[in-house]
Structures
1.
Amino acid sequence: MLYKLLKFCDKIPPYKAIYSNRIAKEAAIVSDFPNELSIETINLCNAKCTICAHPDMKRAKGKMETDLAKSLIDQAAMAKVGKLFLSGFGEPLLDKRLPEFIARARHQGIENLSIVTNGYLLTPETAFTIIDAGITEIIISMDGFTAETYENIRLGLKFDKVADNIKQLPGLKNRALANISISCVDLIHNHNERKQAYDLFGRCVDGIYFRQAQGWTGRFGRQEAGYSPHFEPNTIPCRYLWDSASVYIDGKVPACCLDYEAEGVLGDASRDSLSDIWRGERFKYYRQGHLANHKDKLSPCAKCGYYSVWW
C-alpha cells in the first residue's frame, strides 16, 4: 500500500518537489561507513527456488576466507555499524563457522546481528547454538504455507521439515534473546495463504511479513507477483548506495545486494578497507549517476526497477 501511495503522490507536483528536496538533503550526506553491512560468508544453497536467481548464478560459489570474514567483522565493529547481516546470496546455516563469526561480532559490541535463512537447517539444536552465540535476529524466508505451494516454489526443500523447525522454536530456553520472524514474498501462488501463515506460525515467531517481489536486476518479470513496484524503472535514486553495502565471498563489493552477479563492482575488500571503498570514487560515481538520473549508464542499475523510499 505504501508503494502504491508513493507512486500516486509522485505525480502531484507539490509533493514531487517536497520529495525531491528531501532526497537531495539526505543524499548530500555520505557517512564514513554503511549503516547496514551484509557479509556473504558462504553463497552455497540447499534449494533451487523458482523466484531466486541463485540457480542460474554464474559467479563462483563457495566460502569466504576465514581471515577476510573476521577482518570485515572487526571493521564493522570498529565503525559501530548499525546492523550486520552474516548472510548473503546463499544459505548461511551451511557455514559451520557461523557461530564463531556471530560470537566474534557480539564480543566486539555489534548489537544488531542478523541472518536470513530458509529455515531448513534451523533445527532446535542449531537455533539454540546461534542464539547462544549472540544472534539478535533470525529471518526465515518462507514463500508458501501449504506443502503444495511451498514445494513448488522452494524446490529441494520440504514444507513439513521447515514447519516442524519453526514450531519447536518456542520451546528453546534462550528463545527470548533473538527476534525471529518469517518473511514471505507476495506472489500470485501464495497471496491467499496469509491466514494459514498466521494460523500455523503466529504463536511461534515474533512477526510474519509479506514483502514485494524483486525483479533481481531484470531477471524476473511481474508474472508471478501479486503486486510489486520493483519491476518498473523510475527516476528516484537508489537509497542502497547511501545506506547499505554487501561483500561477496571473494571480497568484491557489488553495487547492492540485488547485484547477484556482481556486475557493478565498486571495490575489493580483500585489498582495501570498507571505509575507503564506501567513500571511494566508484561509489561516488554511482551515487552521482543516480542523482543525475543516469541509471541507464550504470550496470546493473539500468536493468533494475527497485523503488527506494527516502522518508
Note: The mean pLDDT is 94.
2.
Amino acid sequence: MEVISVQNVKKSFKKFEVLKGISFTVKEGEVLSIIGPSGSGKSTLLRCITQLETVTDGSISICGQTLVKDSVYASKEDCLNIGLKVGLVFQNFNLFPHMNVLENIICAQINVLKRSKDEAIQIARELLKKMNLSDKENSYPCELSGGQQQRVSIARALAMKPEVLFFDEPTSALDPELTGEILKVIRSLAEENMTMVVVTHEMSFARDLSDKIIFMDKGVIVEEGTPEQVINNPQNERTKAFLSRF
C-alpha cells in the first residue's frame, strides 16, 4: 500500500522556484532517505507534505486520501484529518520551553486527539520508557542534553500514533556522540516497520537503513533508487560529486 504519493509538486517563493516538479511514492513500512546539499529543497518538500507550506502546483496523497490535487486542496476538515496521519520531528527539537517533558508529550494528545489526561500520561510514560527517559518526565527542555530533547520530540510525535513519521535533519544540531543516540532510536523504529521519510546528511545511516534513497539538487530529484544503487554505485555525475565528500 502506498502511504505517500507525491506527483509533480512545485513550490515557489515569489519568483524563486524551490521545488521543480518532484514525484515519488513511499510504501507502508518503507524508510526513504532524502539526501542532497543545503538549499536543494529537501526541507521545503517535507514542509509541503506536512502542511507547513502550501504547494504551488502538483498533487499529494497520504494514506489514500488526497491532500492536494493539481494545487487544489481538500476541505479544511479533510486537511486536518490527513495531518493527523503524519508526524514531524524537527532538527531543533521545537519543544515548549515552559512545559516539562511529560506536559510536552501529553499536550497535543489532550487538545487535538481529545484523549483523557490519564490515557495521555500512560502513553507518554510508555514512550519515555522506550526512549530511556523515564527519569526525565518532570525535567524542562533547558535541563536536557540535545540528544535527550530530540528523543522527547520523537516521543511527542509518536504519541499521536501517526501512520508515517518525517524527520528533518534530526541529528544536525547534535554532536557525534549524541547523533548515535538518535540514529539508534530511528533504527529501532525501522525494525518495528514504521514508515519513515528522513532528510539526512548521515550517509552511512541512509545507506544502512533505507529501502530507497532520493538525491535532490536545485529543486529536482537527480537520482533515486536503492542504497546500493545511489550510494554505492551512483550513475549521475552530480551524485558522484556530492558523495565524494563523505
Note: The CA atoms of residues 59 and 68 lie 5 Å apart.
